[in-house]
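Weekly structure sync, notes
Attendees: PL (lead), two postdocs, one rotation student
Agenda item 3: pending single-chain targets
PL asked that the sequence for the first pending target be pasted directly into the notes so everyone works from the same version. It is reproduced below exactly as submitted, 233 residues in total.
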Amino acid sequence: MMHKTGCLICGESLVYTQEEKQTTCSVCGKRFMSNVMCEQGHFVCDECHQSDAYDYIERYCLNSNETDPGVLINSMMKSPMIKMHGPEHHFMVPAVLLTAYYNKTNQHKILHEKLKTARKRSSVILGGFCGFYGSCGAGIGTGIFLSIIQNATPLSGDEWKYGNMLTANSLTQIAQHGGPRCCKRDSFVAIQETVKFLKEHFNAELPLSSIQCGFSELNKECKLAACPFFVHK
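Predicted structure, written out during the meeting:
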């Protein structure tokens, strides 16, 4: 059984380095260049980290009639399939938004096709993208969502503009909360910013209830009361 936080193999803390070195995935045995492993030397590649989670996200969304993306993502995160941190959040954000949007607009029948597109696009956003590339995958996920519902391409006009605007807005709001990364917090912020953007620029409203995080005990780097989603116990 894989651990939900830290190293998936042993649960120990992950160690990030500036220099990459060749290492072997503890799950599939394939060799990779990486700059992250746990304190015990374990490494799990992105494909092994997210494969089951991606399938779970897709199934969950296809079987949901939820129109509140906050409710949907929070309930989905409670599954053991979704780890505390990881690249599965890069798919989960656009998947949740697409599900809520197409349910709200009575277009659930095209959701399967759209989720496949979101899965393909988000799968190339590597784990650790927020720190090593300066662009949080959850924030990028909002742009994936908007590009899909607009049928945007690199040659689009306003569709191109709005996709980049939403991504920029999401990344700005995520950045203003400061580090270290928290995939839960960043995903919640991305959802909030998208709902706000849809209302302001498309006159499209998705319901969004107050989001409360129930995962702080799993996050060794949790900012506690400094996080707007932290729940005092």
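Discussion points:
- Residues 43 and 133 are 20 Å apart (CA to CA).
- The chain has a mean pLDDT of 92.
Action: rotation student to compare against the earlier draft before next sync.
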